Amino acid sequence: GDSVITVQLTEEDKVEDDVVFYLVFTGSTVQHCTSTRKINPGSLETISPGHDCCETVKVALCASREGHPVLVVAEESFQFVQDEAYDAAQFLATCAGNQQALNFTRFLDRSRPPAADVDFLDEKVALAFRHLKLPAEWNVLGADQSLTENIPRETLMHFAVRLGLLRLTWFLLQQPGGRGALSIHNNEGATPVSLALERGYQKLHQLLTEDEAKEPDSWSTLSHTVHSGHYSVKHHRGLDVYTLTAEA
Known about the structure:
This protein is an alpha+beta fold and 248 residues long. The protein has helices spanning 84-94, 99-111, 115-131, 156-162, 166-173, 192-198, 202-209, 217-220; strands at 4-8, 20-26, 30-35, 37-40, 43-47, 56-64, 71-79, 223-228, 231-236, 241-247. This is AKP13 protein. One of its GO terms (molecular function) is MAP-kinase scaffold activity.
């Protein structure tokens, strides 16, 4: 998801300005409808929707005009593929609470990747996480909810904070167990909050300590999503296009 798609219109499809074009992606369990932006009379631009699984879907280019029936202009297949970010998100989601796996992730910290790489990793993994089908009982702290806050252990929140992953931290905060993870000490006695302070991650520390912390401006300018039941609407501010996603 979130890649730019360009649509080239044929001569006969270049019509009046009052015609609105949109794309409909039909998958096995969800359907997405995205608005488009006209670049010039023969080209449209939109954002690919984030999908819930890796599969080939049908995409239809539709034209709408007030007082006229919706017209399907063209149809094509579109493939959502599994990439490294998806694999990483899957791995992290399944190892929530798994101490052996979480201790292994600390190995990444020793290489201290450059800031640009961290930002790229943060954006891609957080995006992939948002599109994962997490089980209803999924929790940031793992499956064993009988553990108390007094038991020292590594958590997904420690991992995200240690690497300075601002977007992923924000996502985890919104999930069950996210807030509870903030007060858990690891074997070195560090909480995610103290880790952020120790490493000088001021924005991250602010995010973790403010009661009414809002989604950081550093990426909220890219898109904003509103969920309602089986539907969600996402506004991509950069291109000013909307995506409506509904369960099929």
